[in-house]
Design goal:
The complex is a heterodimer. By secondary structure, chain A is mainly alpha-helical. Chain A is built from eight helices and no strands. Chain A is globular. Chain B is α/β, with parallel strands linked by helices. Chain B has seven helices and ten strands. Chain B has a six-stranded mixed β-sheet, sandwiched between helices. A four-stranded antiparallel β-sheet of chain B has the order 2-1-4-5. In chain B, strand 7 (163-167), helix 6 (175-190) and strand 8 form a beta-alpha-beta unit. Chain B is globular. The chains are: A mainly alpha, B alpha/beta.
């Protein structure tokens, strides 16, 4: 079991270190997220009440598009010198390779979200600082499933010619229920009249389903 | 001598029997038999497209065995994929190295993915054996093809596999690199390993004691044989 976690950790470490050294994915994800939020803010120029109503949707749309950018690059490093083949020749179950790739992507996406959330509250002048840790928790829950399914779809589409378009076309409809649950959960946290628990439970269910099936599906996908 | 011939009483470390492999309707291997005992080096010869790389990829477990049997060290490969992958090292046309990592980091990555826990001294020794001690802290991205190949082969010292699979190992190596590789392979074979390599360059392999194995029409022939076994 230790071997499995060590291997997954090492794959994730390799991806995060690679990104840090090459300033590749994290910086562009962050820049993209800030650009999207600024455009939304300038375009809508909402008052505080309207901003509170719009914020959950804007936040999740930004998270989704930013994740897409990271997911499009998740297997890029593996194209170098047959590295993906090297991963498949590792003496660990193929699901562990998925786990490592997912952990690396999850970490990068969460880092962006941690920086993104306070920035969103400032830009839209929404006073939800007391709810910040709970909203981050909801973002974490949603991101677990979003990146889990996303990394699987990125593996499926990596050989396609227009893989980034294909990835978006597959990911958007498949994660729609998860995104709706995420938006509703954040909205409930900002509106005392709403209940967040059912939506959070739904997020947990999606996470369990996606993350239970994805490593198995990945193993099957790369079998030959 | 047939491709799967073994002297009486010698148990092969590697054995494949009646192996077929097709890509769609295109059959590449049709009933390949091969048995190699410890210390043996089989050199796959054959024209382009004869199936050398496919056979090596199949031995490396990159492809599943569609028909036939494959055993390594007594293990049925189809049932013990991970254990088998721990016991073999495959260095093909690609080196499976990450350009943004240093040689030491690349070796540590390889070790962790094979369930190995080498200490820092062993990693540095492997980098030294590859002649890259001076470059141990540099990203591999800046290395020449020959340096990358040496580093990929230095994994041998980390994992100490039973089976070494090489696809055109002499490509990208200079004369000094060829001697270095032959010395490395000689030590590996003496220590009880088995080597299967594909090479277009039999002259460079000549320094090693080896069994020539010719792939033709999807079948494997031993030296001087007209009929496959």
């Amino acid at each position: 079991m230790l071997t499995v976690w060590r291997a997954a950790y090492r794959i994730a470490w390799k991806d995060v270190v690679g990104d840090w050294r090459q300033r590749a994915t994290l910086s562009s994800m962050l820049f993209f997220a800030i650009a999207v939020l600024v455009v939304f803010q300038v375009a809508f120029d909402p008052d505080r009440r309207e901003a509170t109503r719009l914020l959950p949707g804007l936040l999740w749309v930004t998270v989704l598009f930013t994740s897409l950018m990271g997911l499009g690059r998740v297997f890029q490093a593996e194209e170098e010198d047959g590295a993906f083949e090297g991963l498949l020749l590792a003496a660990v179950p193929r699901g562990v390779v998925f786990l490592g790739k997912w952990l690396g992507n999850l970490l990068l996406t969460l880092l962006v979200e941690i920086l993104l959330l306070p920035l969103t509250l400032v830009l839209f002048n929404v006073d939800a600082w007391g709810q910040l840790p709970v909203i981050l928790g909801v973002l974490l829950l949603g991101t677990l499933g979003l990146t889990g399914l996303g990394v699987l779809l990125a593996a499926m589409t990596q050989a396609a010619r227009s893989r980034e378009t294909l990835l978006a076309l597959l990911l958007l409809p498949l994660t729609a229920p998860l995104l709706i649950a995420g938006v509703q959960a954040v909205a409930a946290l900002l509106d005392p009249g709403m209940e967040a628990a059912p939506w959070v439970r739904l997020l947990v269910i999606f996470d369990v389903v996606y993350l239970a099936l994805a490593p198995w599906a990945f193993g099957w996908l790369v079998a030959e | 001598m047939s491709a799967n011939h073994q002297p009486a009483g010698v148990i092969p470390l590697l054995s494949i029997c009646g192996v077929h492999h097709s890509f769609g309707r295109h059959r590449v291997l049709s009933g390949v038999d091969l048995a190699l005992a410890v210390g043996e080096c089989g050199v796959l010869l054959g024209a382009n497209g004869s199936g050398k790389s496919t056979l090596l990829a199949l031995l490396a477990t990159r492809f599943r065995v569609q028909r036939g049997a494959y055993h390594l060290a007594g293990l049925v490969v189809a049932e013990h994929g991970e254990e088998v992958r721990r016991r073999l090292l495959f260095v093909g046309h690609h080196t499976h190295l990450y350009g943004h990592l240093t040689p030491l980091e690349n070796l540590q990555f390889f070790a962790d993915l094979h369930g190995l826990r080498p200490d820092g001294a062993l990693l540095r020794e492997a980098v030294g054996v590859a002649g890259l001690a001076r470059h141990a802290e540099q990203p591999v991205r800046w290395f020449s093809a020959g340096m990358k190949k040496r580093l990929a082969l230095a994994r041998l010292l980390i994992s100490r596999p039973d089976l070494l699979l090489l696809d055109e190992p002499y490509s990208a190596l200079d004369a000094q690199g060829v001697s270095w590789l032959n010395a490395l392979l000689h030590r590996f074979l003496q220590a009880g390993g088995v080597v299967v390599m594909a090479s277009h360059d039999p002259e460079r392999v000549a320094a090693l004691s080896h069994r020539p194995l010719r792939l033709r029409g999807g079948r494997l022939y031993g030296q001087g044989e007209e009929e496959p076994c």
